[in-house]
Design a protein that fits this description.
The protein is α+β, with helices and mostly antiparallel strands. It has one domain: Deoxyribonuclease I, Chain A (4-Layer Sandwich). Helices cover about 20% and strands about 30% of the residues. The strands form 3 sheets. Strands 3-4-2-1-13-10 form a 6-stranded mixed β-sheet. It starts with a strand and ends with a strand.
Length: about 230
C-alpha cells in the first residue's frame, strides 16, 4: 500500500509575517483536507490539541513538548490576545501525528531528545502495520548545528529501537538543519531542501515535494513560516 506522508511546523497557527491572531484551525483543516495517510505536526499549541481530530477528521496522537502550569484553555485565551507576542510561553506546545481513520496505531511511544536545554524537545513515534512513523522537532540553534545534529541522532536511535525486522522507518519533522548540516544517515531517502525533512529507510520513497507558498496562502495570509512537505512511501 502506498501512503502519503506529510509534515508541517504549524508555527502555532500564526501567519508569515507574524500577526496577532492564530489561524490554527484553518491550518489543520488545510493540511488534512485531501485525506493524507499520515501528517506529522510540530509547534501545536496545547489548547488546540484536543481539537485536532475534530478539525482534521483524523486520529490524533500528541505529546506535550512544553508544558504550562495552568489549564491549556486559559493559556489559549491569553495567547489569543496577541498570538505573536505570547506564543508557546503561555500556550505550551506539542508534537502530533495525525492518522487516516483506516490506519490502526499498534504502539505509541515518545522520548526527550534535548539535554539541558531551556525548552524540552521530543520525538514521538507510532507503529503501524509494517512501518514506524517518528515525528521530531529539534532545538532552534542556528549558531550551533551540532546541538540539532545530536538531537536528531538521539531521535533516530529511539526510533530504530522500535523498528522490527521487515518494517520501514519514517523520520519526519523540523530538524532545524539544512541538508549539508545533517549528520550522516546511511540508507535513508534524500532530505528536503530546507530544515524540514521526511527521511525513509526500508521502503520505497517518492521524491520529496515542498508546497508552494500559494498552496498555504488563504484570505488570512500565508499560513506558518514553514511550508508543508510530503512524499509517498510504499
Amino acid at each position: 500500500m502506498v501512503m502519503l506522508v506529510r509534515s508541517w511546523n504549524l508555527y502555532h497557527g500564526m501567519t508569515s509575517p507574524r500577526g496577532r491572531r492564530s489561524h490554527l484551525e484553518e491550518a489543520v483543516r488545510l493540511v488534512s483536507s485531501d485525506r493524507p495517510d499520515v501528517v506529522c505536526l510540530q509547534e501545536v499549541p496545547l489548547w488546540g490539541c484536543p481539537q485536532l481530530e475534530v478539525w482534521s477528521g483524523m486520529t490524533a496522537i500528541w505529546r506535550s513538548a512544553r508544558r504550562v502550569w495552568f489549564p491549556p484553555r486559559l493559556g489559549g485565551w491569553i495567547t489569543r490576545l496577541d498570538q505573536g507576542f505570547f506564543r508557546s510561553a503561555v500556550s505550551g506546545q506539542a508534537n502530533a501525528i495525525l492518522l487516516h481513520p483506516r490506519l490502526v496505531p499498534l504502539e505509541e511511544r515518545w522520548t526527550t531528545i534535548s539535554r539541558s536545554r531551556r525548552e524540552r524537545r521530543i520525538c514521538e513515534a507510532v507503529r503501524l502495520e509494517g512501518m514506524v512513523i517518528a515525528n521530531l522537532h529539534t532545538s532552534s540553534e542556528p549558531r550551533h548545528p551540532e546541538i540539532c545534529a545530536g538531537e536528531t541522532l538521539r531521535a533516530l536511535a529511539f526510533a530504530e529501537s522500535l523498528v522490527q525486522p521487515g518494517e520501514a522507518l519514517v523520520l519526519a519533522g523540523d530538524f532545524n538543519l539544512r541538508p549539508s548540516q545533517l549528520p550522516e544517515l546511511p540508507g535513508f531517502s534524500p532530505p528536503g531542501p530546507r530544515i524540514d525533512h521526511i527521511l525513509v529507510r526500508g521502503g520505497e520513497a517518492s521524491p520529496l515535494e515542498l508546497w508552494r507558498e500559494a498552496e498555504r496562502t488563504t484570505a488570512s495570509g500565508v499560513l506558518s513560516d514553514h511550508a508543508p512537505i510530503e512524499l509517498r512511501v510504499g
